[in-house]
Design goal:
Elements (H helix, E strand, L loop, with lengths): L1 H29 L7 H19 L2 H25 L4 H24 L24 H4 L3 H19 L1 H11 L1 H6 L4 H27 L11 H11 L4 H23 L6 H20 L18
Helix pairs in contact: 1-6, 1-9, 1-10, 1-11, 2-3, 2-4, 2-9, 2-10, 3-4, 3-9, 6-7, 7-9, 10-11, 10-12, 11-12
């Protein structure tokens, strides 16, 4: 029982950045825009958040800087894909390359490409909940983890019960009808991409300001691509996206535990296990996924 509780606690921590990034991607795709810039957005936000916290001595300044960076990258994606109507695949991949390149360049510029990166010396700690009880390891999580979990029902309510959520959904399904109804499709898609980018920035900040307290160029390590798969697995629904993130987190935590226990398997197989499970789940869920009808389709007003 204790083993399962510890494993579940680790799964929650591992799942947090993926859940935040996947929720951000869900908002963008619900509005009809595929944002493949998650990986670069998370990496650049993780770096900017680290530098801001390192220079200011305040984790909160770093957190705000990371969120702002994510929102800025979301705005850039909106400019390319919504205003200019460029190919969404190319735009997103360009942002990933841009974010990764900027993070690596400025890291080398500021820290000389040190093999041992500087540490913050502080990080957002885990909240101590019900200490001394059996559930203490499970409930003692980062504040950002609890925030990510809280976002799931909040976004589920927003998407189903608010005017903004209905407009978002309609913009990804039938933007022409939304435009005829007097709603600015461009504005809705901009809002979705900026909010989604902010959540991706928050996901990057979790890695450097909470989980690691330091920055390395491989800190994101493919989590952005996993987040895209989780959105498809979750069928663009927050609760199912949470389940997908927890599944990945559980498998990742399990392979780390198996390595620690010295299981007689090549460590390369254990490292690949979470990603193999992600591919398998995506292959199974992708065939029945209910993609937004206007996804990947730039919208142009009649006569505009």
């Amino acid at each position: 029982m204790e083993f399962l509780i510890v494993l579940a606690a680790a799964a929650l921590r591992v799942a947090t950045p993926i859940l935040l990034a996947a929720l951000g991607e869900m908002l963008a795709e619900r509005a009809g825009v595929l944002n493949l810039g998650i990986e670069g957005t998370m990496l650049l936000a993780a770096f900017v958040g680290f530098v801001a916290a390192h220079q200011s001595g305040s984790l909160w300044v770093g957190l705000a800087a990371a969120i702002a960076t994510g929102a800025l990258m979301g705005t850039l994606m909106a400019l390319l894909s919504v205003t200019l109507g460029l190919n969404q695949h190319v735009s997103g991949l360009g942002i990933t390359l841009l974010g990764g390149g900027l993070a690596l360049y400025f890291f080398r510029l500021l820290y000389g490409g040190a093999s041992t990166p500087p540490s913050l010396g502080q990080s957002f700690g885990q909240l101590s909940v019900l200490p001394g009880t059996t559930l203490a390891p499970l409930l003692s999580q980062y504040g950002l983890t609890y925030f990510a979990l809280l976002l799931v029902p909040v976004l589920a309510f927003v998407l189903r019960r608010t005017a903004f959520g209905l407009r978002l959904h309609a913009s990804g399904e039938n933007p022409e009808a939304v435009d005829i109804a007097g709603v600015n499709v461009y504005r809705v898609r901009y809002q979705a991409l900026v909010l989604g980018g902010a959540l991706m920035g928050l996901a990057g900040a979790f890695l450097t300001l909470a989980q690691l307290g330091a920055f390395t160029h491989g800190v994101v390590n493919g989590r952005g691509w996993v987040a895209i798969a989780i959105v498809i697995f979750g069928n663009w629904r927050p609760v199912r996206i949470l389940l997908g993130a927890l599944l990945f987190g559980f498998v990742q935590a399990l392979q780390l535990r198996l390595q620690a226990e010295g299981v007689a398997l090549p460590y390369e197989i254990l490292l690949a296990l979470p990603y193999l499970v992600t591919i398998l789940v995506l292959a199974l869920a992708g065939r029945n996924a209910n993609y937004p009808a206007a996804l990947l389709k730039p919208y142009r007003r009649e006569g505009g």
